[in-house]
Amino acid sequence: MPPTKSPPSALWLLLRVNTLQSWRRLLATRSQSRLLTSIIGFFVLGYLVLSFELFFHGLKFIAGFPGLGAVLTERLLYVLFAFLFALLLLSNLIISYTNLFRNRETAFLLSLPVTNQTIFRWKLLESTLLASWAFLFLIAPLLAAFGLVRNAPWHFYLLTVGLIALFIVLPSVLGAWLAIIIGRFLDRRSFQVTVILTAVMLLFIAVWWKTQAATDELLDKRTLEALDQLLSKTRFTLFPFLPSYWLSTAVLQWAEGIFRNSLFFALVLLSHTLFFGCLAFTRFGNLFYDTASAVQSRAGRPGFKFNLFSTRPTDRPGRLLERCFSCLFWLPRDTRALAVKDMQMFWRDTTQWGQSVMFFGLLAVYIINLRNFTHQLSSPFWINMVAFLNLGACAFNLASVTTRFVFPQFSLEGRRMWIIGLAPMGLARVVTTKFWLASVMSLIITLGLITLSCCLLNMTWDRIVFFGAVVTVMSFSLNGLAVGLGVLYPNLKETNPNKIVSGFGGTLCFVLSSVYILASLGLIVVGAGGLHPNLAWSAASIVAFVLLSLLVGWVPLRWGLSHLKNFEM
Q: What is the pTM assigned to this prediction?
């Protein structure tokens, strides 16, 4: 008898099926709207070209300092990869927890004759891809510009691609392991106290991690001494046991032609990647299954009180959210009930508020540390430049939050949408309530951050009011764009917000948000940055900004509400 062909492995089938689905979804998106697909492609290409030009000219400018350019460039790479490793670890932790324990596909696969190790392998690969694609998209233009500035040979780029592929495995494995630990011990009071103490310690570290400003007396003495003082808090990135140190050293020494040392650190990175990757692929399956069983059985445990906003009837008088919204007596009761429901769902999902804290926490730490160098900003030009840069950082942060959290809100109702459609409240009021709730909550945070930034820069009250008004208009516009596009491009079959955002609608939302922010910043700088002393130019720029915000925020929202009249569930 001829030898029978062995069936393909379950992991290979999962990879093949999901790859085909993604490819067909991409082809369907292209056939539906070629114009929107072309806009997104043009934006991606424009970002790559623009970021490459900025990185190239910036690195070339730094390299022009005699004797200091190489030191600054190397230290920047060490700091960059160290912080990117930390961000990749946090992103992998959040996404892995969702994919492993809060995903319907995972629950479905657990009921099939598929081994636990195979399910974990597939979810690990999926989480790594979802968490790392933005990192690869960001780092590619920088490394290409660095290679051209250093006149690196052609094989430098091949080595760099391989090193980055090895580098992203370590935070993905560590993030999955931390997700399993958190899911297994989350209901234990000692673990909760440990997590809170760790968060407080990290907050103190963030406040402590600031560079001591160089005084005029120090700058007049020695340049190297001043540079060493400015870079003193970045020495931790040179710790030789950090994976970011292995990657940075391998890249830098290969670009300088020191191939033997570069190959040594590349092999160190390869050995750790193979060891921990093999450990995760062969030993984490049973741990994942035990943790998934504990997470799924935890909802009915009476002693679990981690959730602050409990919905049990015995806790009804003490619920904080309902008590707060009951004070808003001018709102209808159904509107208040929907707002309470959305906020409770947001709080129960660790990935939602965890990423929100990450987004705004990093920005808050940066703004708080403005006080460390504001005394050296004596020129109004530099004060205005820092203020506008802070406004841009706040706006892009807000665009990321609205795309990540506000856009999928309509789709997350899923198959329960027909219940809301039959309710007296109606879908239109549901969408409007979601818009106002998201706008108000995001405005509270962004308005507080931009006001704190202006106060730390010692700006006058009229400038503080101006920047506050600008960020208010941008908050409503970005939330209107996210809510409107979320209704126009829904995905009711998906329960994972990461996959909803990764679709065509989420990509289009972020592209349009970024274009709107860049155009708005240009208009505001022309109108209020002092570039044109003519009042007519300033007034025209401000009016154009208001009209652009109205077009970006109001039009998609109105289209979305009109689309609900013929919406088929």
A: 0.74
